[in-house]
Amino acid sequence: MRRWLGGALLCASWSFHAQAQEIQEPASITVESEARLTPPPKREWYGWQIIVADVASVGSIVAGAFTRDETSAAFLIGGFGGYVLAAPFVHVGNDERDHSTTSIGLRLGLPVGGGLVGGFVAPGISGCHRDDFGCVFATVAGTVIGGTVGAVTAMTLDAAVIAYHEEPSDGSPRTAQRVVPRLAASRSGFEVGVAAIF
After folding, report:
1. ∠178-174-102 over CA atoms, to 5°?
2. Which tens digits make up the pLDDT trace of 125-151?
3. How confident is the model at residue 193 (pLDDT cuts 50, 70, 90)?
4. Whether 179 contacts 89, CB under 8 Å
5. Burial class of residue 107 (count of CB atoms within 10 Å of its CB; 0-12, 13-18, 19+)
6. Taking Cα atoms as reference points, which of 42, 40, 51 lies closest to residue 161?
7. DSSP, res 188
8. Rounded to an integer, what distance in angstroms lies between the CA atom of residue 193 and that of residue 52?
9. Contacts 24+ apart (CB under 8 A), 29-38
């Protein structure tokens, strides 16, 4: 009698344990399947817009440097203004407002830092004396070269590294905004800017 009851209890406990496993297993399989089916976020590069804006800005600066009439100042102001502000507007138009702050910091900080380093190092490299005119020339040349290197580095990092945004993996649409660089030439002058589409 005791053996029969023990066997019955053993069968009952084994059956209950098997049923519990059958109930729990589908839940774990479902969770793993959902985790595997979640797609990673997509990265989209929009740096070509920044490259177009920077080419237009640099072209305006070069035109202003070689122009000797009343349009020279307009070319220079438009070029330097486009260098500092066009790329941040492109970031904002692509719904990446945090990138615009980084862009401005790079475009102002790297040329200033490069100019300071170049102006400090160039006289020592040239071996000039502090009272010589050549030392002044070396300082100015080092400042210009260092600032130019810093500006080129800032433009490269902005377009190649920063100009990305992530598309939502759930397929939800992003804000419909677009910023396109604008370049126009006329008899009275040269215009550089951006056009926003919302």
Report:
1. 65
2. 888 876 677 788 999 999 999 999 999
3. low
4. yes
5. buried
6. 51
7. S
8. 11
9. 38/169
Q: What whole-number distance in Å separates Cα of residue 52 and Cα of residue 164?
A: 16
What are the residue ranges of helices labelled H in the chain?
Answer: 2-37, 47-66, 72-93, 97-126, 133-157
Q: Where are the alpha helices (DSSP H) in 38-96?
A: 47-66, 72-93
Residue type, 42: K
Give the separation between CA 191 and CA 65, rounded to whole angstroms: 16
For strands 178-185 and 190-197, give the pairing.
Answer: antiparallel
Per the rule left: phi > 0, alpha: psi between -120 and 50, beta: everything else, 110 is alpha
Q: What is the distance between the alpha carbons of residues 107 and 86, in angstroms, rounded to a whole number?
A: 11
**CA distance linking residue 45 with residue 80, whole number of Å:** 25
Query: Using only C-alpha atoms, what is the Rg of the chain?
Result: 32
Tokens read off for 119: 């102006």
Model confidence pLDDT, tens digit, residues 11-63: 444 444 444 444 444 444 444 444 455 566 788 999 999 999 999 999 999 99
**Distance (Å, whole) CA 190 – CA 79:** 10
